[in-house]
Amino acid sequence: MHITALKTYMQRVDDRPRLLVKIETSEGISGWGEAYNHGPDWALPPMLDYLFHQIEGEDPRRVEYLILKLNQQARFPPGALGLAAISAIDHALWDIAGKAAGLPVYMLLGGNVRDRVRIYCGVYTAPDPEAALDQTLQLNQDFGYTAFKLSPYRRDLHNSRWGELVKETGDYFGKIREITPSHFEFAFDAHAKIYEPYQAVQLAAAIAPYDPLFYEEPIRPEHIPAWAELKSKVTVPLATGESLYNRFEFLALLTARGADIIQPDICVVGGVTEMRRIAAIAEAHYVTVAPHNPMGPLATAVNIHFCATQPNFKILEYKPHVHAPWALDPYVPVDGHMQLRPDRPGWGIEIDEKALITEDYIHWERKITKKPDGATAYP
């Protein structure tokens, strides 16, 4: 068996663009992957065309070899776009390997260590407590969710006194705890908007009395010593990692004892192959893995197989999709978990190629926050 073609399809899931990748082989077996949309989405197809020539004619089942080749053929380490492209190729290669063997991918990774994969729902906003109660109860009723992720911000970060925001956040979480079922878990994603670490410590202290599931990415990821200091000063589980790219960056974070939970993205770091290395390093540091996954049904399928096999897996991010017509049979939560599909080879999800004939791209770009003085801030 050898690789004969690589095709890309620019699509969307709800209001976000998603790039799907199909790799075809001489035996008629094809595999699918999903690339992360960092922003310049149209830069990915030509990059993938270029990378295809590095693997054309190769045996797609040699996943480790081919991913090493793609990484090593570059003089310098791939950046965000390069790794997004390599991730999608990695996914497609594993899909082919599973289908060729007649097995789900998780069986090729050593087999499942759990029978199902727990998920949490990304709400991402900070609805009024009564609205949050209604929303979480509905999600619990429909899908069995018992874990959710909210924003800690009830007001603009820059247009008021910081202490007012901190108090409001603490009061807000306290009210949510008061009116929601006691077994519900709530995480808070600060989206790396806080520039000054002491403010991140203050915000952590405000939510600490109410037992958050975790406190995600309050500051930027680049300066590892700041994470080590931050973790030493907070009493809530500290999570980060969606903006880190490889095992070396995660090793630096973990060596510095900068996080309790890491959140690598399987569409960012280079696919399943690199994700497993990162998770193994975390396991050796007694750190759990809660993959970043704001993606589409295909990326969710890839994540489920990874999570099923990883001993130090904690919980997977997932938000129900409304518009993804190309996914014929997406994984759907049952009792707050994703069930494995042991009778389906590869990723266990069918892609409707007829739905891909029509380009369904939607433009999206991150909004830049402006401070009162006109300066920009992290969004």
Automatic annotation (TrEMBL):
This is Isomerase. InterPro entries: DgoD-like, Enolase-like_C_sf, Enolase-like_N, Enolase_C-like, Galactarate_dehydratase_3, Mandel_Rmase/mucon_lact_enz_CS, Mandelate_racemase_C, Mandelate_racemase_N_dom. CDD domains: MR_like (cd03316). It comes from Pararhizobium polonicum. GO terms for molecular function: isomerase activity; lyase activity; magnesium ion binding. The lineage of its organism: Bacteria, Pseudomonadati, Pseudomonadota, Alphaproteobacteria, Hyphomicrobiales. SUPFAM superfamilies: Enolase C-terminal domain-like (SSF51604), Enolase N-terminal domain-like (SSF54826). Residues 129-237 form the Mandelate racemase/muconate lactonizing enzyme C-terminal domain. SMART domains: MR_MLE. It comes from the Bacteria. Keywords: Isomerase, Lyase. Pfam families: MR_MLE_C (PF13378), MR_MLE_N (PF02746). One of its GO terms (biological process) is amino acid catabolic process.
